[in-house]
Amino acid sequence: MPRCRVAITGFGVISALGRNSAEFWTAISQGIPGIGPIEVIDRAQLRFPNAAEVHGYRTEDHFAGERVSLLDRFAEFGMIATREAVRMSAIEWTSALRERTAVVTGSAMGGQTTEDVAFWDLYRLQRSRVNPLSVPRIMTNALASHISMECGITGPAFTLSTACSSANHAIGHAFWMVREGLVDLALTGGSEAPLSFGNLKAWEAMRVVSTDTCRPFSKNRSGMILGEGGGMLVLEPWDAARARGAEIYGEIIGFGMSSDAHHITSPSAEGAGRAVKAALADAGVPPEAIEYINAHGTGTMANDATETAVIRNVFGKHTDRLAVSSTKSMHGHALGAAGALEAIATLLSLRNEVLPPTANFTEPDPACDLDVIPNKPRAAACEYALSNSFAFGGLNAVLAFRRPAA
Question: Are residues 178 and 231 in the same domain?
């Protein structure tokens, strides 16, 4: 079966930048960070006070009945994003389409909030049992399962968990499934809710979280800022989308992945570079065609310098004509959901001809000698872009996008 072009016909977001894709894009396109004091738990016992939190979120505003007891916060975010994406795509469900639709989600941590509560009950309160629904709330595949049940999807549904690359791996595999004709539609993305006390203390111990804010590529960067949220996309064959009159918001044209085989936490420029090259080869475009890169850009000393080396190694002299920014400076590092938020940011950047800035930028670092679009958005009509995700464990996943075209 010949390969087909893959259109994006819907997307949905919930993050610290807003409760839907319109609010998300307003903040991203204006360079407005969603980073602030942690409110979901008592931050007094943490070394870092800030995160990119979905402030004021209430489960009951979105879910009722049995769903309230079955969903962890991470799955709730994914469901909210899915509902928006499905509405936007105006899918007309049939039993045949439901059998030919895939659900592919990503999450690094799954139901951390539920797990934290269970451990508190056992070890702090000395209770003899936990909530009997703890396992179905904690399991990382919970989102994929709930999407399939809510939409009546009976095709393949599964979850990929590759730390910070989870959503990019999920989107990439869903893209391949649609492109190769294995399915006729895919709902894909990622979600994460890592702001539980136990998990934050674990991150605190790693000493990679900033005590103030995320300043990717700045000389005085001091670490990442954790974020939460969910992002989901609807993918379908280009011709099928055109035939049903769907609006096409963009196109995924390539996916590449690699493993560093190097170190459990330290990044490798060689390993990540292989994923970038693989994405370009899969897309069938030369490096010189890429005009914008949504960087992994965590704000740590090691990551940003390594990613700069990756880009320079792959793109050579073309690097000086590349625009690069890290939207983690605004929506935080949402771990397994990060790639989904960044995919949507990249998609909207191409569609709206505005490149998001690297917010909070202060001082150039010679080790990060890229055009990082400091602090202010930039009008630019780009055709091709990449979105990078490089995870702990040396697991890399890169997506290639093209702006809407006939």
Answer: yes
Verify whether residue 333 is a known catalytic residue.
yes
Per-residue pLDDT tens digits for 187-198: 999 999 999 999
Question: Are 113 and 227 in a shared domain?
Answer: yes
Q: Positive or negative, the Cα torsion across 102, 107, 110, 113? A: negative
Range of the domain at 360: 254-402
* Short-list 39, 120, 110, 28, CA closest to 77: 110
Tell me what pLDDT residue 1 has: 59
What average pLDDT does the chain have?
97
| Among 173, 296, 331, 368, the one annotated catalytic | 296
Q: Which one from 169, 173, 333, 382 is the annotated catalytic residue?
A: 333
> How do residues 58-103 score in pLDDT, each as one tens digit?
999 999 988 899 999 999 999 999 999 999 999 999 999 999 999 9
Catalytic residue among 164, 214, 368, 382: 164
Q: Is 296 a catalytic residue?
A: yes
Picking from 7, 118, 10, 12, the residue whose alpha carbon sits closest to that of residue 337 is: 12
